[in-house]
Specification:
By secondary structure, the chain is α/β, with parallel strands linked by helices. The protein contains nine helices and 18 strands. Bound molecules: S-adenosyl-L-homocysteine. S-adenosyl-L-homocysteine binds next to helix 7, strand 14 and strand 16.
Length: 342
């Protein structure tokens, strides 16, 4: 950080020996600051930023700025040569910089405010976004970024595509909904990253709010005590395993958050799951159905295991099956006691 009020020689000396710099206090000092950048031989990669983040924001190559227009609320930036191409420059078709990485980001369950600041930062820093189309649509447009929307199923190809781009130097964000580690892309990326051709490609996972938390908070605190998270999908595990895990979780009297509860391809399984649970759990067991929580079609239903109608459930729903200690309070809010009998 250098003040523009420094004597020109000193400023030149700093700029010619540093990797990156920010020069503040421009205004009247601008002509000699610009000259210092020129004499240090770095004017061609210097940037100018005025009134950053306000409606009056202006950015430009430092070399193009008319000194007459420079206010006090501005600064000159010397990005490190390692930053790669400057914004607006043609991308290097070979993509050869040392900055390539894959960051796996979760957007949260639907509402914009459920995307964490860390996830928003990671998305903003990416050059390439890869993910299921409707998830990418939730990320604010950025003309600097390339986007590759894909089908929801091709997870391994999507991961390989991301890792390949990162290997050639691109900063890639793989976008999931909710938390990327919960029935989403993070494990898929790590699995593909084990292939020898992707050795050394950095992968980072940024957490997100998962749908179970969002649904739970909308109705109260049903996850207030021990709970488990299961996916009813049998795409990646046999249906027998799903039912077996469900029976064990029910027998252990855990609260169960059920993801992927019912798809068009397997409409009968939720009914079977319900019967398996009813073998162990009372029909009065509290059940919460949250649909599109945080989104435009949000719907929350509190029912019981006996009354649950699988026909009302689709893939945009998440179910919370209460434990024996889950109850509906006088206010209508659902909660699970933190104390267990005995
Ligand atoms: N990674 C996501 C889960 C992906 S699996 C997460 O952490 O939330 C997809 C399933 O998540 C859906 O079938 C549904 O069960 C649940 N889900 C995701 N978003 C939801 C929302 N806004 N409301 C209700 N359920 C949701």
């Amino acid at each position: 950080m250098l003040p523009g009020t420094l004597p020109a020689d000193e400023l030149t000396e700093w700029l010619s020996t540093t990797d990156s710099a920010a020069v503040m206090k421009l205004g009247r000092t601008f002509p000699h600051v610009r000259e210092a950048f020129e004499r240090a031989g770095v004017l061609d990669r210097a940037l100018y930023v005025e009134r950053a983040t306000t409606v009056g924001q202006r950015t430009a190559p430092l070399a193009d700025v008319d000194p007459e227009t420079v206010p006090y609320f501005s600064l000159a930036l010397l990005p490190s040569p390692l930053t790669g191409e400057l914004p607006g420059a043609e991308p290097d078709p070979g993509g050869g910089t040392a900055t390539g990485q894959v960051v796996v980001v979760g957007l949260g369950p639907g509402a914009r405010y459920w995307t964490t600041p860390e996830a928003a930062d990671a998305l903003a820093c990416a050059e390439v976004l890869i993910g299921y189309g409707p998830y990418l649509d939730r990320v604010p447009a950025n003309p600097r970024q390339e986007r590759f929307p894909t089908d929801n199923r091709v997870e391994a190809e999507r991961a390989a595509h991301a890792l390949g781009l990162a290997r050639s130097g691109r900063r890639v964000a793989v976008v999931s909904s909710g938390d990327p580690g919960v029935f989403a892309m993070a494990a898929a990326v790590l699995e593909v990253a084990e292939r020898p051709e992707f050795a050394g490609v950095p992968v980072r996972v940024v957490p997100g709010l998962t749908a179970a938390q969002a649904v739970a908070s909308k109705v109260g605190a049903p996850l207030g005590h021990d709970f488990c998270v299961l996916s009813l999908s049998d795409v990646r595990k046999p249906w027998d395993v799903v039912l077996d895990r469900l029976r064990h979780a029910a027998a252990a009297d855990l609260v169960i958050a059920l993801y992927n509860p019912r798809s068009k391809h397997r409409p009968h399984q939720l009914g079977e799951a319900q019967q398996a649970l009813l073998e162990v759990r009372a029909p009065e067991t509290v059940v919460v159905v949250g649909r599109d929580v945080g989104g435009a079609e949000e719907r929350l239903t509190v029912t019981t295991l006996g009354d649950l109608d699988p026909e009302t459930v689709d893939m945009r729903c998440l179910l919370i099956i209460g434990s024996s200690q889950t109850r509906v309070g006088p206010s209508g809010l659902v909660w699970t006691s933190r104390t267990y009998p005995g």
